[in-house]
Amino acid sequence: MDIHEYKILLVDDEKTLLEMVAGFLKRAGFHHVVTAGNCRQARELFHKETPHLVLLDVMLPDGDGFTLFESLRKESEIPVIFLSARDEDENRLRGLGLGADDYITKPFLPEELILRVKAVLKRVYRIKDARENESVLLGDCLVDLGSGVVHWNRGEKAGAGGMDTEVALTAKEYAILKKLSQERGRIVTIDALCDAVWQEENYGYENTLIVHIRRLREKIEEDPSHPKYLLTVRGLGYRLV
Amino acid sequence: MKIQYNGRKLMKVVLYGISVIIMIIVLVGILNFVFLLAGGYIYSNMSWDYIAGGKVMEALTYTDQGYVLAEDMFRKLEEQDQFAMLLNEKGEVVWSVRKPEELKNTYTQADIARMTRWYLKGYPVQLRVWDDRIMVVGMQKDTAWKYNLEFPISWMDFVMKAWWYYFAANLAWIVVLVFLFTRRFMKSRERARIEWIAGVSHDIRTPLSVVMGYADTLEHDTGLSEEARQQAAVIRHQSIVMKELIADLNLTSQLEYSMQALRKEKVRLAEMIRSTAAEFLNDTLSGQLKIDVRMDGDTEHIYVMADRQLLVRVLRNLINNSIKHNGQDKSVNIQISMWKEKRKCYIRFEDNGVGYSPEILHGLQSRKKGGAKQNIHGLEIVKKIILAHGGKIRFGNCEEGGSYCLMVLRGEKR
What we know:
heterodimer; A: alpha/beta; Arc Repressor Mutant, subunit A; 2 domains; five-stranded parallel beta sheet; 8 helices; B: alpha+beta; Heat Shock Protein 90; five-stranded mixed beta sheet
């Protein structure tokens, strides 16, 4: 099922906000959006429409979102993103000990909302990101993220031996490149990269990371000592452009 | 919510309360004394024209026909409704004037002893010894209160000595009571205030979401003119500024009264600084902002027990401040460096902007609040957060231009 086919239930007591957010979601391609203005309506729609995700305001006229959330969770494992306007809620939501999937603090930008909705849907319903299997094009080099193979098309530049060559990435290099390509154009900190590659407890891996980056550059960069695509952001991390 | 109090502030209120109470006590004491004197004086002038035994005796003369009382004294006794009688050594009444019928004509030693201390058949009397005779002057029943006080001398000694302790103990009591009352009072008042601010900021956030959301939509609406889209961009940007202001307001009010329960966790400073800086750079148009992060190798694994969100807020506020007060060329160069001395972790934040004005520096250094003339809320929060974490902070200007902020936090072992 395409991500845009998922049905979203939106609960907020402020009608203007409800309309606006529904508009954002529709424009982003989600054409099954139902809205509720209070807990009662939300419960009704929840049973009638069986949505795939709930966007839930914390403060509702006939009860608070936390209670509604708990009662919904008793019935199904539906993912819930909270919309909150109070800092106190943030404290409660920060750990998400409640079991909510995410939270957004008001005021927010449409882009942020859509990103989070998509991220939660992908995670919960294991939707394969189209980009995940895409390949990354870096100049003459094409990295197939499905197989983790780097295809070089050196063309005439390489002269007579200008054949297409293929190099396979190691698991670590693959993880690094995948992370960087997901955030292409943005700085990814050393810490985020270590998290992506070694998961938890990864202190002291910074130097190892440098080694892997260098090897990766050897495979994807034309001139590894003067990288054009995998750039170092001094003191912070790396960026794939 | 756990509540802690700003000790200095509480102390101030308590001291104020105590001094007010002491002033009231002293004032009431003085007033009471004055009223008592004045009242007593007026009252005695009105009706306490008591004629004592001595006066009667002076007016009494012994002649051949017996005792003769001066005419004016007789009139006075009549006016006051008093009586008088003279007893001889045997206790017999040898002379009397206006003596009530029910009174005997002979008194035993026991009778006399009793009437000196108490009453004579309910009549308050006063005795005066005249040679071997006794003059008894009495008033009507229930007109005077007569009582004798008697204490052991040791007890009186104790009272005289313990007087100061007694006073001090009372004072201590007052202090404790005032303390408890003011604390209670402050608690409820501060809570009301914080809740009010939290409520207001909550109410603003929802409409602001709509403003921000639609401004963003307009900004991306290709059907609009470039100018209109630019204006929408300004609205969007300004609503983000408002968002930050609201968050700051809420945070200030909570930090002010130490109501923000610090959600302390292990924070790896190096990681926190990098991710905050990266986030900022990712969201800013390239070229305008440069953040140079320099950390000593041994700071890489430093942890502090802190509220991560608040520390992120510190950096964000500092960066925002640098962006707001950038130099003439509009470029913002920020340098964040970190080093370690023993278990202390130093973070130095530096920019190439216009530097802090003397007023801002003064406002940040003085302990007084309400220096809100200048737009330094963001920096106030930086200071409060660092102090709330038991750290130290200093703001200043670099010699070569730009400003710096030096923060010291206590590192934890891993």
